[in-house]
Specification:
With 178 residues, the chain is an alpha+beta fold. Helices cover 49% and strands 21% of the residues.
């Protein structure tokens, strides 16, 4: 084995993807452009991983020279992929952080329909956990705090819009009654 490949690196995660119970891609991020450069190669890898793991009870697999940790929930499969010498516990920590964060955002309804309805939040969670293959955060509470901060700003503006609309309704009502 090449000594260069064993040197420690911050670039821990090679890919992260979420598939539905038919193996169709709902979300995927590949952080190593040399790993699977084309979408076709990515889809083939995802199908292969899904076929090998969707009926298994394990949490870790070694496929195509990659370490894959995975978890399923109702009709979703979550995968985190690392290099062959990557620490499985690090990858599992990322997977658990992703799952726990999404569980909170989706209010414990971690299933396809709710995931698709909240895809913006899902992308925010993924981006808070991993950036370019580097693990930024592994604590779901910290991820939620950062994501909620952003979503609170948008809900405040939505609340302000609702207040403006209500105020306009009141003004129209009073102008008609006069």
């Amino acid at each position: 084995m090449d000594s260069m490949s064993l040197e420690p690196s911050l670039y821990t995660v090679k890919a992260l993807f979420i598939l539905d119970n038919d193996g169709n891609r709902l979300l995927s991020k590949y952080y190593d452009p040399e790993l699977y450069p084309s979408v076709k190669e990515q889809n083939n890898f995802e199908k292969n991983v899904f076929n090998k793991t969707h009926k298994a009870d394990n949490e870790i697999a070694f496929l195509e020279g990659m370490t894959v940790v995975y978890k399923s929930s109702v009709d979703l499969f979550f995968y985190v992929v690392g290099s062959p010498q990557e620490n499985e516990l690090m990858l599992m920590t990322v997977l658990n952080c992703l799952f726990d964060s999404l569980s909170q955002i989706l209010r414990k309804n971690v299933e396809r329909r709710y995931l698709l309805e909240n895809m913006e939040g899902v992308f925010l969670v993924v981006d808070e956990i991993i950036d370019g293959g580097v693990i930024l955060e592994s604590d779901p509470q910290q991820v939620l705090q950062k994501v909620n901060y952003k979503s609170d700003e948008s809900s405040l503006s939505e609340q302000s819009v609702a207040q403006v609309i209500q105020s306009a309704k009141e003004q129209i009502k009073w102008s008609i009654l006069k």
